Amino acid sequence: QDTWLVHGVLEKWEGKTTEVYSTIPSDDTENPTLLGTIPYMGETEANRALEAAGKAFDKGKGLWPTMKVADRVACMEKFVKQMEKKRDEVVKYLMWEIGKSLPDSQKEFDRTVEYIYDTIEDYKDLDRDSANFKKRDGIYAHIRRGPLGIVLCLGPYNYPLNETFALLIPALIMGNTAIFKPAKHGVLLISPLLEAFKSSFPKGVVNIIYGRGREVAAPIMRSGRVDVLALIGNSSSAVALQDQHPYKNRLRLVLGLEAKNPAIVLPDADLDLTIDECIAGTLSFNGQRCTALKLVYVHEDIAEEFNRRLAERVDALKYGNPWEDGVKLTPLPEPGKPDYIKELITDAKKKGAKILNKKGGKTTFNYIYPAVLYPVTKEMRVYEEEQFGPVVPVIPFKEIDEPINDIADSNYGQQVSLFGKDIRTLAPLIDTLVNLVCRVNLNSSCQRGPDVFPFTGRKDSAVGTLSVHDALRSFSIRTFVASKDT
Ligand code: G3H
Question: Keywords in UniProt for this one (predicted)?
């Protein structure tokens, strides 16, 4: 990999490079597998990307922001058709770079393609919408949606393709120009798509930067020329970048941040189904999902049986390389993650929790087996911190007000999973919970998709809403032409 995309042009890179190593443990532990090298970018390249994006937007006069709907659709269709041909390459990178299992990597790719096609259709509908015409007091208004300007997109390592594109694609189709920074882990998978970017969009519309946030993203923000900061990741990065912008009031934010989604297991819950969903919810992609279940509240009447069965099932999950059949637990891309999870476990044990499963907390290469911790209490770090990794904290409760009050007091407010059968108990609980979070999952684990559904959160979990429909609105502004009725 010796080329990169800046200025919308694929260029030969002659500067310093950064080596990208695989997350998959190598047989030779001294020498991890080198996957490729990429340009080591700094402020100079970041400014070039900014110049290119600014020139392509050209204060709203550029080819891209003024392009007709049908032509912009044609560019996006050209892009997605080329992207589809790169499925196998991108999927391979997802497995080697971030350790995502083969089925999950394929799902991430297919879901992204579907997202692009759905976005194209929704964008066409925006233009067709008859509500775009209004008449009042003799004035006709033709309401449109226009671009905002330059968008800086930053994606996370857990969905380096899908979530980066969930920001980038709607931003582009609405006529904005973009600079995007792929995640630290999951950067090479963009390389099979460079040619598609280059040949589908006008020069300067898409600009890719890579490097340390403070060296590449911060200078772009300091310029004051960014109109939208679109980030999926942690709030400290979002706040740090926001703070760099000299005219914060002009900056639109589209942010998907942390969450601490709980499951509440009521005494009449179907335990087979609940345990299946709790395992998928806490441990899919090793718990590295903002939507993962990060606390499990279980009613004390059923806690013993629930815990025993949950612990057995967790120990039966297969660890291995992403392409192996039936693998559920895979290597972790963040080098410090096993130590961090170990710290959470040690802290919880010191404060009275036990590890319920035999394999819990054991390490293999860069992996730590999920520990089912019980009973977890508010004094423990694992109660407060977003673990974003393989550990399952279980909290007993007697009265339903206990979890409800905890959710109300939490700094986060994304989703909840509620497990139980009696609708007379569930209905009022749902009515309360929807005022505390943004999605209540009944007898199922939390998740973002399908991507046509609104995805957001209260408090520190999100700013703005993502979904095919909402994102088009997040990355645009309503304008109109008014004319007198004559
Ligand atoms: O990391 C947060 C993701 O948006 C989770 O998405 O629920 O589809 O895995 P998911």
Answer: Oxidoreductase
